[in-house]
Recover the amino acids of this structure.
């Protein structure tokens, strides 16, 4: 009997090592954290792409009012007026996704009428000055025939906490201390950027006066 008991004691570790009950639960516990992290990262990446496409569509639609001279002949002289009238209208349909806070949109509009000046587009704000510093932003719609570039940036928050812990160059822009005059942009954000470039149509611009500083 004692010998049989010793044999059972020796076989117990072997049976424990060979027992596969609960193996699936253990394996799932090991892979669940990276799996769900990757899944949420994919969802947020898709959400950011969708939001940026919505911003691009809204900017392209609003830019048509500059291309056709509607904004110029309607006494739109500031970026805030352009935003509240065409990008985020108080009345009428809004193309911009509803979750985007219109007060945080950063707008820069420039125009050039001399062909020799078009080369500036190749290196325009390579340091991203227009969204980092208020003083570098302009609202200068062009007269008829002018080449105009409309740029709108939006600091969209990061919703997935794990992305905040990653290096800032892999998830977006570290906005702490950068976005002057834009509330609620501390920490990491996704920087959405939409651009529209066009030549203004030959509208009647005799009564249009460019805003100060243009």
């Amino acid at each position: 009997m004692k010998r049989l008991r010793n044999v059972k004691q020796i076989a117990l570790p072997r049976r424990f090592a060979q027992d596969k009950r609960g193996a699936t639960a253990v394996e799932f516990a090991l892979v669940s954290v990276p799996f769900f992290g990757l899944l949420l990262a994919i969802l947020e990446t898709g959400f950011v792409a969708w939001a940026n496409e919505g911003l691009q569509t809204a900017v392209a639609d609003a830019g048509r009012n500059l291309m056709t001279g509607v904004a110029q002949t309607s006494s739109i002289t500031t970026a805030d007026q352009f935003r509240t009238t065409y990008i985020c209208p108080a009345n009428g349909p809004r193309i911009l996704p509803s979750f985007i806070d219109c007060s945080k949109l950063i707008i820069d509009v420039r125009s050039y009428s001399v062909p020799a000046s078009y080369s500036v587009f190749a290196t325009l704000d390579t340091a991203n000055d227009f969204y980092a510093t208020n003083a570098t932003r302009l609202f200068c719609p062009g007269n008829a025939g002018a080449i105009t570039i409309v740029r709108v940036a939006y600091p969209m928050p990061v919703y997935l906490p794990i992305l905040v812990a990653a290096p800032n160059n892999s998830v977006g822009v570290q906005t702490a201390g950068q976005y002057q005059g834009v509330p609620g942009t501390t920490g990491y954000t996704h920087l959405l950027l939409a651009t529209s470039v066009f030549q203004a149509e030959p509208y009647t611009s005799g009564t249009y006066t460019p805003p100060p500083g243009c």
User: Anything to note?
Assistant: The chain has one domain: 19-199. The radius of gyration is 28 Å. Residues 23-67 form the longest helix (45 residues). The helical segments are 2-18, 23-67, 79-87, 129-132, 161-164, 168-171.
